[in-house]
Amino acid sequence: MTTDQASFRRLIDIGIALSAEKDTDSLMEKILLEAKDLSQADGGTLYIRSRADELEFKIVRTDSLGIAQGGTTGQDITMPPVQMFGEDRTPNMNNIVSYVANTGETINIADAYDSTEFDFSGTKKFDEGTGYRSKSFLTVPLKNHQAEVIGVLQLLNSISSDGAVIPFSDEITPLIEALSSQAAVALENQTLIEAQKHLLDSFIELMASAVDAKSPYTGGHCQRVPVLTEMLTAAACQSRETPFRDFDLNEEEWYELHIGAWLHDCGKVTTPEYVVDKATKLETITDRIHEVRTRFEVVKCEAIIEYQKQLLAAPEKSDELKAALDRELAQIDDDFAFVAECNLGGEFMADERIERLKEIAQRQWTRTLDDRLGIAHEEKKRKERAVAKSLPCKEQLLEDRIDHIVEHDAVVHSADPNNPYGFRVDVPENKYNLGEVYNLSIPRGTLTEEERFKINDHIVQTIVMLENLPFPKHLARVPEIAGGHHEKMDGTGYPKRLMGAEMSIPARIMAIADVFEALTAADRPYKAPKTLSESIRIMGFMVKDQHLDPDLFRLFLESGVYREYADKFLEPGQIDEVKISDYLPESGDTSM
Fold first, then answer.
1. Could you tell me which residues are beta bridge partners of residue 45?
2. In a domain, 313, yes or no
3. Sign, Cα dihedral of 191, 69, 13, 251
4. What is the pLDDT of residues 424-452, one digit of tens each?
């Protein structure tokens, strides 16, 4: 093989190696080291052009001085960047590096001390301080596919076979230029990949922040769950215990987990605020208890008016009529207090409470104004389902009217019209029932069956949204990781009803992270945050009920992840002593 053939073979091998490198620091380092080796240079520097048109030092090497900075060395480069332009935006042509960056030309200097074209004062000052003799320079631009200079490669002091410093030969210059061209393409590709990754990360975090900002009830949930998920996953990777001995994630799998964790609640963008934020039974956009209270006020006024009419007709019965009025007003007050208590949803609605509610609802008040004036088009369409009453008319104090039925789209279809989800989803009628008696009769909590479906449906929507995104092969499990955090070990979870063995370890980790964050969150306006011990106790019960993975829960405690997370995110008053031995199985017992 001739010398030229060997050089070209070497150049091809270098190009292959550069294209295979995925780490940017390693790539830049490899570019400079290969160029030094190919040209027998004692030293070299790689500059990268910044958005501010500065040439930043990325890799610096001088073998004879033992200088190795930047790249994978861990040694910071303290030298300031080279400015491509002056303050008036005129190109900086005095410095050889900025000249090459501005012109795109290769410059070969045989001896810097003889050069009058460029300012080498900085180089000479460096030589004075080190005793070094900077002589020959080969400065080559790195151009991308659009012929834009994205960096500069500078080689210093070509060394001959007998150790003497000689100029860079005319024969080596084209090879270094060819290498620089390959390097620029590889570097730009890597930069574009990292830019796309950064854009994806930023978009994902933006989506999570938007979900959190949509409702004060979610707080920073979407941002904290990924942190806890990655903490527990790291503990599983480091564990040498039997359940996790063979569990580990490579770089791509870690990124897959990162995206899945950040997007685990992205489906909440489809959940209406008036459902997520429903703090009382009558709440929609506003709490309708105020409207109901106004009706009670009207009823009281009508009772007083009726009393006054009767008093005028029979003044001799004033004491009897006043006593009856007082009893009626007291009963109205008591009835409203009962309705208001029902609205809070804090007490179970037994049959007798529902019956009393229905009795109260039968009381009537007089409406004299048209209830179809000044309302939105959609509400007016719902009103038109019923025959308008002639005014004045009697209305019930609490009603389930036909216009309280609000239709909505219960399902967002995926690409497959025959099986939109690929799993079973129990879908109630596609409506919200805003009926007052209907909502006040909710047995427990503040949500109707339809609203609970809509809350749970965010998991389905998360899966559907993510499955319709064209994730590359190495991110194919993102929908499964993101959509599995409401599944349970016993197969009673939502929406796929997966058994524990059917769930990946990352999905099971997500379930623990989601529960623990929700229990300890201090930014939920509808509940006080639970202490560390209270949260662990509740999770212990969930493990016994086969809702959470017992092995991961044990790791969660024994690794100290629960406490590490608490120190970062919990209020000081929440952090109390946890006796983790109470929640760990005895020797030989794995059932918890």
1. 60, 154
2. no
3. negative
4. 445 555 678 899 999 999 998 898 988 88
Question: Could you tell me if residue 352 is inside a domain?
Answer: yes
**In terms of domains, do 190 and 219 share one?**
no
Please give the helix or strand (H or E) that residue 110 lies within, else none: none
The separation between the first and the last C-alpha atoms of the chain, rounded to the nearest angstrom, is 71
Contact criterion met (CB below 8 Å) for 212 and 218: yes
d(CA 407, CA 402): 11
Confidence of residue 418 (pLDDT cuts 50, 70, 90): very low
Please write the tens of the pLDDT for every residue from 295-340.
999 999 999 999 999 999 999 999 999 999 999 999 999 999 999 9
**Total of domains in the chain:** 3
Q: Does residue 60 sit in the same domain as residue 162? A: yes
For 71-85, b/e burial (b = at least 16 CB within 10 A) is beeeeebeeebbebe
Same domain, 348 and 466: no
Contact (CB, 8 A) for 179 and 138? no
Helices (H), 21-120: 24-39, 96-103
For 16, the token pair is 């292959």
Give all strands (DSSP E) within 218-285, no chain letters: none
Relative to beta strand 165-166, strand 82-83 is: unpaired
Nearest to 300 by CA among 330, 335, 329: 329
- Shared domain for 177 and 43, answered yes or no, is yes
What φ, ψ does residue 398 adopt, rounded to 5°? -130, 135
